[in-house]
UniProtKB/TrEMBL annotation:
One Gene Ontology cellular component annotation held by this UniProt entry: cytosol
Name the record gives this protein: Metallopeptidase family M24
Domain Peptidase M24: 16-88
Pfam families reported in the protein's UniProt record: Peptidase_M24
Organism: Paracidovorax cattleyae
Source lineage: Bacteria, Pseudomonadati, Pseudomonadota, Betaproteobacteria, Burkholderiales
Molecular function GO terms recorded: metalloaminopeptidase activity
InterPro entries membership: Creatinase/aminopeptidase-like, Pept_M24
Amino acid sequence: MARTIALKSAQDLGKAREAGRLAAEVLAMIGPRVVPGVSTEALDRPCHEHIVGVQGTVPANVGYLGYPKTILTSVNHVVCHGIPSARRRTRCTIATPERACGWSRAWSSPSNPC
């Protein structure tokens, strides 16, 4: 069965670039706050406030299939899309906050060198 590849228009590519720019901006804002002792839940609120208040956009995750938070967080053994919680990060943990805007964008951050 032959599969076709749908080519994206210049407008589609522009939207994808804008989504990536918005996601990168949120990750740059939250990065310095990813430190030992902070919970992923504490990272969620500033992300929400930045997305809504500064960017003037809507968090894509909130309410999607019942998802309750703005960001998705993966800590250590969580593969992906974990729900932010009150559990505090400790030294040597890895966190991956994600911000969805049509496309997912994420990076990983160690709490401290082990």
